[in-house]
Amino acid sequence: MTEASGYKTFHGLPELAGLCSMERAVESDWSLEQSVGRLKRLHFILRRLHEVLTAKITAEPIYELKTAFSYHAYLCAEQVSLIRRRVAEMREPPLGLDKVPDPALQRVMDEIEAAPTTGELLVSVYRWLTDEILASCKQLQTDAHPLADAPTVRVARLICFELQDLAEFGRRAIPEVVDEASHDSMADWIDHLRQCLAAAGGLDGTKTVTNEMPAAWHDPAGICYQKEPARDERFHDPYNAGVNPEAFLYDASFDPQDKTLMMYYKRLREIDVPEMMASILVELRDEEPWDFHMEMSRQLWDEARHAMMGEVGFVSVGIDWTQIPINFTWSRNLNLQLDARQRHGVLFFIEQGLMPRTGKRYEWEVATESGDSLSKLFQDFDWADEVLHAQIGRRWYVPRHQSLQQSLAYGSDCWSQVLSHYREYQNQGLTQHRNWWPELYQQACEKWEKTPDPRSMAFCTTYEDTRADLKRIDPS
After folding, report:
1. I need a surface site. Which of 93, 147, 331, 351 has the fewest CB within 10 A?
2. Domain 245-457 in the same topology as domain 30-222
3. Bridge partner residues of 472 (DSSP)
4. For residue 69, how many C-alpha atoms fall within 13 Å in the half-sphere facing its CB?
5. CB-side neighbour CA atoms (13 Å) of 423
6. For residue 74, how many other CB atoms are within 10 A of its CB?
7. pLDDT score recorded for residue 476
8. What is the CA angle 162-392-367, rounded to 5?
9. Taking the domain 30-222, which CATH number applies?
């Protein structure tokens, strides 16, 4: 029996604030260097995973995967920031967090980023890499001194808690996307990744290092960011700009309940914001500090949440949203016609335009007047999110200009440069800009058990020569 095992606390209270037993506390086989080393490896993997998931958002056609990648990239970003704060506390300036801790870890992440199919991406990220990260964090909780290095143990516990969402998503999603035969054929691919990780001594570097790293499975030269958004088959007629919901929403003569349909549409259509914002983060990957990417990732995730709010809104009314053309030309045109700085300018200009009474507050007031409690709830939080986004823009976008007014003017000018191609898309046969509103409104009125308003039914304003802030544009 050791001295520690016989230690007694006052009235038998848990020792050491409940962190561990005294027997564990007297052990000394740990160091600050070990702690920092493991955290830096976790940091590298999580940051690269954040980048990989972000880069896949635009090109991934399946809506549910777009929103999941948006969420999971944000979760990874939060863990990266958590680790960075902890490493900074341990005598580490400069932190050295931008250095690759092991070439084999870089090979692992390069291979995953180069995965050419959605199936390979899902299996490698959600069935293999996530498990490796969780195992590494659990081992860190076991190995780190629970008293001296309690903050690191907490970091490892928090990462495990949050990344369980990725593991659970993978458990449910992979069988729906990857059939058994395809999954079996990926066994060699996953074994290849394991070999690459073994060459690094495991994710945390504590295992025996193998002598050789296998040749690349996928050509890293094939990694190319796809700017053009992809949508699954439910998103029919995506070039359709035949209904301008803002023109309806800001017309005081229309009924607030009718306007909730347009707000649900506007929310669901916001899936194009992550498609556009992802391009900013990818193209400015090496030009902006981590805090920029962290905050912009939060905003990107918020916009994906807003899209899902619209999805839920239509379900609550009993309307199949897939019958509605969900336009994607905003993200497509910005991604293909502007550079990252210009896109950021447009994003900030739009956010600032949502701050006055005629913006997000107005939408919340309309939702409140409509009697639709779900719409009111969603607009309440949508408004709060957009206030945060405006603040993010003021921190990261405005300082690049001489004044707030100049930054707004630049954003407006960039947006004015974007050609809508309204007639061109029509002439190419990509859309006829069908007015889908009357049919949708008729269905909603049947659900609401009310007589349609003839004026609402007759609404037919398009985006041909007016953009979302109701300013005139060149329709060519």
Report:
1. 93
2. no
3. 466
4. 26
5. 5
6. 22
7. 55
8. 85
9. 1.20.1260.10
Taken in order 209, 213, 218, 223, the sign of the CA dihedral is: positive
pTM over 0.90: yes
Place of tokens 């409509």: 370
**Angle between helical axes of 373-396 and 256-269 (0-180°, round to 10):** 50
| Angle in degrees, CA 69, 74, 76, rounded to 5 | 95
Task: For residue 153, give every residue at least 6 positions away whose Cβ sits within 8 Å of its Cβ, in sequence order, or none.
Answer: 19, 140, 141, 144, 146
What is the token pair recorded at 87? 């490493």
> How far from chain centre, in Å, is Cα 91?
32
| Residue 229 CB burial class (10 angstroms; 0-12, 13-18, ≥19) | buried
CA distance linking residue 19 with residue 258, whole number of Å: 56
Q: Note the pLDDT of residue 24.
A: 95
CA distances from 271 to 8, 192, 364, 412, 431 (A): 59, 35, 20, 22, 20
**Rounded to an integer, what distance in angstroms lies between the CA atom of residue 260 and that of residue 319?**
13
Cα gap 351→469, rounded to integer Å: 11
CATH class of 245-457: mainly alpha
Residue 4 pLDDT: 84
Using alpha carbons only, what angle is made at residue 127 by residues 175 and 189, rounded to the nearest 5 degrees?
95
Contact 232, 62 (CB under 8 A): yes
Dist. CA 177–CA 83, nearest whole Å:
33
Residue 27 burial by CB count (10 A; 0-12/13-18/19+): exposed, middle or buried? exposed
Show the low-confidence residues of the chain (pLDDT under 70): 1, 356-357, 474-476
Cα separation, 435 vs 169, whole angstroms = 37
Domain boundaries, the chain: 30-222, 245-457
In whole angstroms, give the CA distance from residue 135 to residue 140.
Answer: 9
Query: Quick one: tokens of 444?
Result: 């909603």
